[in-house]
Amino acid sequence: MQRVRLSSQQALVHRLGDSQITLSPKFRVAAIQSSLLNPSPEFELSLQYEPLIPGLPDDIALSCLLRVPVQSHASCKAVCKRWHLLLGNKERFFTRRKELGFKDPWLFVFAFHKCTGKIQWHVLDLIHFSWHVIPAMPCKDKVCPHGVRCVSVANDGTLFVCGGMVSDVDSPLDLVLKYEMQKNRWTVMNRMITARSFFASGVIEGMIYVAGGNSSDLFELDSAEVLDPVKGNWRRIANMGTNMASYDAAVLDGKLLVTEGWLWPFFFAPRGQIYDPMTDKWENMAFGLREGWTGSSVVVYGRLFVVSDLERMKLKVYDAENDSWETIEGPPLPEQISKPFAVSACDCKIYVVGRNLHVVVGHISRLQPKGICEKKWSFSVRWHAVDPPDSFCDLTPSSSQLLLSYSDKKISPATAQDSRVEFCRNMFTSSTQKMMRYRRLESAWPGFGRGHLFDKLEEAAMKLDDLKKIQKLFIKMV
Amino acid sequence: MSSSTDSPTLTTETTQLSPQPDTETAKPTKKITLKSSDNQIFEVEESVAMEFATVKSFFEDSPSTDTVPLPNVTAKPLSQVIEFCKEQIKFKANPDEAQKKKYNAEFVTEKSDKDLVDMIPVANYLEIKDLLDVLNQAVADRIENKSVEYVRSFFGIDNDFTAEEEAALRREHAWAYEGVDED
């Protein structure tokens, strides 16, 4: 139905001379296409020897231009042909950005209100240290904030929320949700084969592994399964060989490490299992590793670090050779952080989010071994704190995930979302200036296109039941 | 970008450099002479010169030399680059991310467009990654939301569009020519 309306207006819109329409493929009119918009390989080749910026090597020039925010592309691509080639196509631009390793880390914090238990995601831009929000998760049941497991594929900018349990009822869930940063959208994925909560989870080579956890009966689970996020289906893998819930898990050297953690009354050392996806086999964890795993783990420099649950303890690192743990040089976790906290890492920084969403960043440096005979690296940590807004004083984190964004950092999922809402609010009273902003946004944010506008218009039309008025409004707008 | 300061190689440098302030007073540090293409002589401390990967490797190859000729570098940008590196060394010995960010921001804002663009090839030639990152970002920030003419004159780029193509572009992105910042 939508299409029909579009085509009926195409001629009209064209007559008004708004060539903006070329931006959206839905509206592409053959007459406006030129060699500039669809460069032929020969055309590209002929420009190959022109410098992007005179006097600078192309790699350096690229490194400058790839930092130009998307809002400015429209004017920058009119500078010269080579710039047009680089900036004219968003896909090409972001591919080049990715190639050159421009990435902005974002910290996604799964938090809940300490009184109401309401779950909310808060997102911290780790470049500017500003907080943002994302849409709420699409779940019907009131999910308990505990027992849910989140995993992320940082490079793809995707995040998965699996399992958990329904609030007030001790029944586990098999629900799986995916969040994509590029689209700023949640998708409901195929359910897990077994419903579980408080289980182990981890990503190995882009595949999502889950194991053990609490089941719907009195016993803990022995089973484990894997999700291929591309195909979207769950598949059983070998059983763990023991029924256990997971206190913490980590992926180290392509293997999933699961520990049940110390259990009251601490008579026995915790159990631990290690899964190797290459052989599809589980093996028992070394004694020192499971005994010393007393907190939340992260992997940095290919080594397992643990932020201890015991207050004011120093960071420690596992030494596989001696099956022992070593304390890291540097001060203990800053006082701002109180339990419960969530830990994640990117490159050589670890991020700890505590109660009230206090965040501290730990820079881990690797010190070169002193003697030649002594081959071991030693580590040291420096902490610095990020103060949260006051409005976070009732929030408790339950998990934190780190995602990388290769797109423009000036347009964050949250700000675009905010502008989108604001835009819709102002849609009927849009002044020229607002319209300009919208157009800039439209070119900057692919999801924020005319398709979306039409959805909104349609929604408004359904409500108002006055299609003609809406159509008139639309014509006025473009 | 910011992670570059934490890469393992740089961190090892930190450990070598950190004792520098203590020894400074005890014994005079070794000076290294840099010679720009316009025959200006710069005498810098060894720690500063070692920030330049190009100079560093030069010394590794021939440790006995005391003057390093820099045929691709003129005096003005070189002096600015040296100024930047001196500050960076202080931050390495005494890490303070906020202070460093502030300094880096001030360093580029006070420079003219020409100085900025002139410094990039120098930073590139001397392989000072931190500075290159700062400069590239600064350039991107400066051309953000500017008119096409401004950007062309900023970099000295010739307009290679035909009159028709340009007119088509202007029509297509009429709004891109409005509401830009003052040049």
TrEMBL record, chain A:
- The chain positions of domain F-box read 56-96
Task: Give a Pfam family name.
Answer: F-box
InterPro entries from the UniProt entry: F-box-like_dom_sf, F-box_dom, Kelch-typ_b-propeller, Kelch_1
Q: Which UniProt keywords apply?
A: Kelch repeat, Repeat
Q: What SUPFAM superfamilies does the record tag this protein with?
A: F-box domain, Kelch motif
| Signal sequence, renumbered to the chain | none
What the entry lists under PANTHER family is as follows: OS02G0202900 PROTEIN (PTHR46344), OS07G0153400 PROTEIN (PTHR46344:SF4)
What is the recorded name of this protein? Answer: F-box domain-containing protein
- The protein's organism comes out as Salix suchowensis
UniProtKB/TrEMBL annotation, chain B:
| GO aspect biological process, one term | jasmonic acid mediated signaling pathway
Give the record's GO CC terms.
nucleus
Query: Where does the SKP1 component POZ domain lie?
Result: 30-87
Domain of life according to the entry: Eukaryota
Q: In which pathway does it act?
A: Protein modification; protein ubiquitination
Keyword Lipid metabolism recorded: no
What are the Low complexity biased-composition ranges? 1-21
Name any one Pfam family assigned in the record: Skp1_POZ
Q: Cite the SKP1 component dimerisation domain residue spans from the record.
A: 129-176
Q: Per its record, what are the GO molecular function terms?
A: ligase activity
The UniProt annotation puts the region (Disordered) at: 1-32
Q: Where in the cell is it found?
A: Nucleus
* Keywords, alphabetical: Ligase, Nucleus, Ubl conjugation pathway
Which InterPro entries does UniProt cross-reference here? SKP1 (IPR016897), SKP1-like (IPR001232), SKP1-like_dim_sf (IPR036296), SKP1/BTB/POZ_sf (IPR011333), Skp1_comp_dimer (IPR016072), Skp1_comp_POZ (IPR016073)
Family statement drawn from the similarity comment of this UniProt entry: Belongs to the SKP1 family.
What is the protein's quaternary organization?
Part of a SCF (SKP1-cullin-F-box) protein ligase complex.
- Function per UniProt: Involved in ubiquitination and subsequent proteasomal degradation of target proteins. Together with CUL1, RBX1 and a F-box protein, it forms a SCF E3 ubiquitin ligase complex. The functional specificity of this complex depends on the type of F-box protein. In the SCF complex, it serves as an adapter that links the F-box protein to CUL1.
Q: What PANTHER family does the record point to?
A: SKP1
Identification of the protein by name: SKP1-like protein
Q: Which organism is it from?
A: Salix koriyanagi
Q: What is the lineage of its organism?
A: Eukaryota, Viridiplantae, Streptophyta, Embryophyta, Tracheophyta
